[in-house]
Write a structure and sequence with these properties.
single chain; mainly beta; 9-stranded antiparallel sheet; 39% strand
Length: 188
């Protein structure tokens, strides 16, 4: 499978349990990925692609997804706002909650999706995780079979996205800028 990832930005957050259950369900991994290795080092989760292509050297670093793991208290119902009115000497009720670990795929391409061998298929895995996420956004510009594709997934839902080609201001001749060498307002 050929393809490239040009731009990627992610703010995805998924419960760590959901990430593990996705891979335990034995998903159909994209062509080029035989399996994934999931490793956790302290507060970092690394999901590394195992390439199906045996011609890749065992020393070739394959693409990996990197997420930080954080604990967040999740309430069964919304907690009351601080500073709200209190009536009488009511005893404060404890709202049921639990600590949940979240995998946070946050950052740009080099932060979230590392290494180039089987990078595009690993992006497709990230896209599947984004569709399962209830929080965050994934935006990307990719190339597959010679076509540019724009991806935008917001809180688990695909949204419309387009690729817009604009003129790069750095490539212009500079005619609209100030010529500092020949400026009558600058004295010698």
């Amino acid at each position: 499978m050929t393809g490239r990832v040009f731009r990627l930005h992610s703010t995805l957050e998924l419960p760590l349990e959901d990430v593990h259950s996705y891979f335990e369900e034995d998903p159909d991994l994209p062509e080029g990925i035989e399996d994934v290795d999931i490793t956790r080092r302290n507060n970092t989760l690394i999901i590394k692609a195992v390439a199906a292509d045996e011609s890749l050297s065992k020393y070739t670093p394959t693409a990996q997804l990197k997420a930080s793991v954080t604990e967040t208290r999740v309430y069964e119902e919304e907690p009351p706002r601080a500073g709200g009115p209190r009536w009488g000497d009511e005893e404060e009720e404890e709202i049921p909650s639990e600590l949940v670990e979240f995998a946070c795929f946050k950052g740009d391409r080099e932060t979230v999706l590392q290494n180039t061998a089987v990078q595009y298929p690993m992006f497709l895995v990230l896209e599947e995780l984004a569709l399962r996420s209830e929080k965050g956004t994934l935006t990307a510009i990719t190339e597959h079979d010679g076509d540019l594709d724009a991806t935008r997934i917001v809180e688990g839902e695909e949204r419309s996205a387009t690729v817009e080609v604009v003129e790069n201001p750095q490539n212009s001749s500079g005619a609209s800028g100030v010529d500092w060498r020949d400026n009558e307002f600058i004295s010698d």
